[in-house]
Amino acid sequence: MKALTALVFIALVSTGAHAADSAVYDRHEVRFASGQFQLAGDLLVPRNADHPPVVVYVWGSGPTNRNAHIDNSPILASFIAHGFAVLLYDKPGSGGSTGEFDNRYLFAERASILLDAIRVLRARDDVDPNAVGLYGSSQASYVMAVAMARTHDIAFLIAWSCPMENSVRQGAYLLRNYVLCDGGTTEQADAAQQAYVDRACARTYPEYRAAAGVLETTPSIRDGLGWAGVDSSDAFAPADSTSESFLDPAALIVRLPFPALALYAENDRQIDPVQGATAYRRLLAAQPDDLSSVVVIPAADHNMNLSPRGCLQDQRDGYRTVGGKVLSPVFLDTVSAWLARLRAHLGTH
Fold first, then answer.
1. Which of 2, 58, 176, 211 is such that its CA lies 20 to 30 A from the CA of 50?
2. Residue among 142, 92, 76, 133 at smallest CA distance from 258
3. How far does Cα 264 stand from its chain's mean position?
């Protein structure tokens, strides 16, 4: 069978806003081991901050390049400007980090690395060991959920474009929108979405064959996404319902006992922003103060770039058909304003 973890995400990069000036922070190389993996990263510590809180980057899917992000990211510049240290480490197989993930246990392995990174930070004497927070998007939602279920050492969270349903449901949402963006009808998109779920959950070969056949005969899925194909009866095996493809972050995160900012893009066609925002509002409803927030960024796509359609196809062509690649200023301003409030909050604890 095709892999069920259908996460297709593109990394956020600078779109013309200013990056952090290296003269205002010290850059420390950080290397640590996590199981079979050797991680290489950098800790950026603002020079005007004494034992600052620290943000750990939790990347989405795909390869990473921490150096390019440090050189170009306006979000990283905002963290530094508000007095937060930042830890970025390349994922295994990227940059200076080594090792190879087992895709059957991708979220668990990435969460273990994240927990080891937190332990490394809490042992340092140049940051606040009690103010370690996470900043992550896309696939990071699953990684952070697994980590948060295993530790109480997280002090805050910024989650943007984070799916809050399992990978099968998330993939079906993306697939439906891909068909619509390719000019398909609502009926075709709905049928493809249901077939994707049915194929993933099929317990018998006839069930699988019927659902896979729908996807195979939908050109935008077969030729555009490449998510079609029909296995033989000999190759078919029912999916393991306990696998990571069925991991639900909204069910795994029982509560959020710390400040959190959840950001969703109005035109996100890759993860369901309505479902995600609703899940986070439920998780944050019991918090005693008004620091935590769920914000929907208008006219933005999954990567928080301005996009009237929000289609994956537009990202793949470099946004040429929608006026170019522009990071939403509302996204930047919202994160910056929240960081100022969070910094004041952490300063009182």
1. 58
2. 133
3. 11
Q: What is the C-alpha separation between 201 and 214, in angstroms, rounded?
A: 15
What pLDDT, on a 0 to 100 scale, did the predictor assign at position 93? 93
CA distances from 326 to 17, 180, 308, 320, 330 (A): 9, 23, 12, 11, 11
CA distance 75 to 184: 36
Tokens standing for residue 213? 């056949």
- The contacts of residue 83 (CB under 8 Å, 6+ apart) are 46, 48, 49, 52, 53, 343
Backbone angles phi, psi at 271, to 5 degrees: -130, 155
Phi and psi at 153, nearest 5°, equal -100, 20
Of 136, 145, 159, give the one whose Cα is nearest residue 108: 145
The whole model's pTM is what? 0.93
Q: 19 or 107, which is more confident?
A: 107
Question: What count of Cα atoms within 13 Å lies in the side-chain half-sphere of residue 63?
Answer: 9
Check whether 349 has a pLDDT greater than 90: no
What torsion, rounded to 10 degrees, do the Cα atoms 64, 107, 158, 166 define?
120
Count of residues for the chain? 349
Q: Which of 58-72, 109-123, 131-145 has the lowest mean pLDDT?
A: 58-72
DSSP category for residue 62 = S
Domains and CATH numbers, the chain: 22-166+247-347 (3.40.50.1820), 167-225 (no CATH)
Burial of residue 131 (number of CB atoms within 10 Å: 0-12, 13-18, 19+) = buried
Opening angle at CA 196, ends 190 and 198, nearest 5: 100
Structural element, H or E, at residue 46: strand 37-46
User: How many whole angstroms separate alpha carbon 231 and alpha carbon 233?
Assistant: 7
* Residue 258 near residue 154, CB atoms below 8 Å: yes
